[in-house]
């Protein structure tokens, strides 16, 4: 029997994708208002859950159900190349799903609920008959929730050992909605191939220009709502900082809209960091917010 290469297992988990959920998880930790030092063990468990386990599981599941396409387009990937032989890609997906749920259960009931929801979306994203990835509205929405909203919620739930404050949940959901636009940026590089394969990304459905405008609005509007919430909660300086980040994003969006196909990758590399920086700024606003402090007392 052909042996699995350990390096192939790590490769099929795509570690580069772990940063986004781990960053959102950290935002949840910060926004909870709880001290970090006494909770280091559960925080480390949460980092493991958000990155290598749940996100890693989603990547293995995706590679398994895309193995036939990858055999044509990217035959060197671990599953089509045989470095993960037979049905071990599927078995690995089951094993990692089980480990994820076990750790989520240990970390708390609300973490388990979030883990169940996130893993269900991860499987539905790639697995027939759902294949949410075949439609840009559903697929990008699922990824946005899994990469931003659920990890943020999980970080706060771990620290509070219960259901986080509604303000924390609101920010997590808003930034997850905005991430839908970020996911759309990744779809401009393969419009021709997606059209031929029947993958209905937003650029395929709306055209390059139309989908670019939608992506910009989807990224910008949740941040406007965040600014309004921070102002209403008495955090004008944090709100002003996000206004500044949004202005920079707006200028970059103007450049992106001039040629979406050509500039999508550039905007993703330059503009998205301003978006995720706003996540942490808003998390720090809540960390010292009286309404959060009163909820902890």
TrEMBL record:
GO cellular component: membrane
Name of this protein: Chlorophyll synthase ChlG
Main location: membrane
Location relative to the cell: Membrane
TM region positions: 12-31, 37-55, 90-123, 152-177, 214-233, 239-257, 269-288
PANTHER family according to UniProt: CHLOROPHYLL SYNTHASE (PTHR42723), CHLOROPHYLL SYNTHASE, CHLOROPLASTIC (PTHR42723:SF1)
Listed NCBIfam families: chlor_syn_BchG (TIGR01476), PRK07566.1 (NF005742)
GO biological process: chlorophyll biosynthetic process
Organism of derivation: Roseospira marina
Originating gene: chlG
Keyword set includes Signal: no
Keyword tRNA processing: no
Membrane topology designation: Multi-pass membrane protein
GO molecular function: transferase activity, transferring alkyl or aryl (other than methyl) groups
Keywords of this entry: Cell membrane, Chlorophyll biosynthesis, Membrane, Transmembrane, Transmembrane helix
């Amino acid at each position: 029997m052909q042996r699995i290469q350990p390096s192939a297992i790590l490769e099929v988990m795509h570690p580069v994708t772990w940063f986004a959920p781990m960053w959102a998880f950290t935002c949840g930790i910060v926004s909870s208002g709880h001290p970090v030092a006494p909770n280091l063990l559960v925080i480390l468990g949460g980092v493991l859950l958000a990155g290598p386990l749940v996100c890693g599981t989603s990547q293995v599941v995706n590679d398994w159900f895309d193995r036939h396409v990858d055999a044509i387009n990217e035959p060197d990937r671990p599953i089509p190349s045989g470095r993960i032989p037979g049905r071990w890609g599927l078995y690995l997906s089951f094993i990692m799903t089980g480990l994820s749920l076990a750790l989520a259960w240990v970390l708390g009931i609300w973490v388990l609920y979030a883990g169940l929801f996130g893993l269900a979306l991860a499987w539905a994203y790639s697995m027939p008959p759902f294949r949410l990835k075949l439609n840009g509205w559903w697929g990008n929405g699922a990824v946005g929730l899994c990469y931003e909203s659920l990890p943020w919620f999980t970080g706060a739930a771990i620290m509070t050992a219960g259901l986080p404050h509604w303000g924390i949940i609101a920010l997590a959901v808003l930034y997850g909605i905005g991430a839908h636009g970020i996911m759309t940026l990744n779809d401009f590089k393969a419009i021709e191939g997606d059209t031929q394969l029947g993958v209905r990304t937003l650029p395929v459905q709306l055209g390059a220009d139309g989908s670019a405008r939608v992506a910009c609005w989807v990224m910008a509007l949740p941040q406007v709502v965040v600014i309004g919430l921070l102002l209403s909660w008495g955090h004008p300086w944090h709100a002003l900082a996000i206004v500044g980040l949004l202005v920079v994003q707006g200028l970059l969006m103007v450049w992106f809209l001039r040629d979406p196909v050509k500039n999508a990758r550039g905007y993703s590399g330059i503009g998205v960091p301003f978006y995720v920086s706003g996540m942490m700024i808003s998390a720090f606003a809540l960390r010292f917010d009286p309404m959060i402090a009163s909820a902890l007392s």
